Amino acid sequence: MPRCCAETVTGGEVRAEFAAFKARISSHPVLSGKVHDVIRRTDSGTPIRANYVAVSYGRPDRLEGRYTQIVTAGNDRRYTWDVKVVAVNPDGLAILMEAVLDQMLGHELAVDGRKCTPITVVPDVDDNSGYDRTTDLYYDTVSLRFWSRPA
Q1: pLDDT digits (tens, 9 = 90+) for 110-151
Q2: Is the Cβ–Cβ distance between 66 and 149 less than 8 Å?
Q3: What is the β-pairing status of strands 52-55 and 76-87?
Q4: Among 105, 111, 102, 53, CA closest to 82
Q5: What is the model's pLDDT at position 68?
Q6: pLDDT for 50-103, tens place per residue?
Q7: Which of the residues 8, 36, 98, 129 could staple to 73 if both were Cys, CB 3.0 to 4.6 A apart?
Q8: Parallel, antiparallel or unpaired: strands 120-121 and 137-150
């Protein structure tokens, strides 16, 4: 009996893709030790002034089955994950963003039992870049996308 989509989407099968995605970014020498799941904050809630990357986790934004097949998370899954680069100056922002793109674009993630397509940038997405005077930080966001299919 097939499992419910909601059960499998939140299960370990989906976390494998995120673990591979995050490990791939973290393996770049410039990004090593600088990849986090959230925007880093002090105990008082203000963003930490440092150069780092925040990778947001999310469920597949699209699930597809074959013809009359019941759609579950074991089917084809499309992921779109945002990578936010935070830096204390424009040069740091450029260096980190270049490292993210060099490390991720065109790469096929290795996930047991799955075959992933090469990672691409999602076109025509608001870039969410700029400078925040309150925190005195520069930031930029890129949305990366790939498909994960049964091997």
Answers
A1: 999 999 999 999 987 776 789 999 899 999 999 999 999 998
A2: no
A3: antiparallel
A4: 53
A5: 55
A6: 999 999 888 888 777 655 555 565 788 899 999 999 999 999 999 999 999 999
A7: 8
A8: antiparallel
pLDDT, one tens digit per residue, over 28-57 is: 999 999 999 888 988 998 889 999 999 988
Please report where in the chains the tokens 């498909």 appear, as a residue: 147
Do 28 and 99 touch, CB atoms closer than 8 A? yes
Per DSSP, the residues of 4-38 read PHHHHHTSHHHHHHHHHHHHHHHTSTTTTT-EESS
For residues 142 and 121, the answer to whether their CB atoms sit within 8 Å is yes
Token output for 114: 């799955």
pTM value? Answer: 0.82
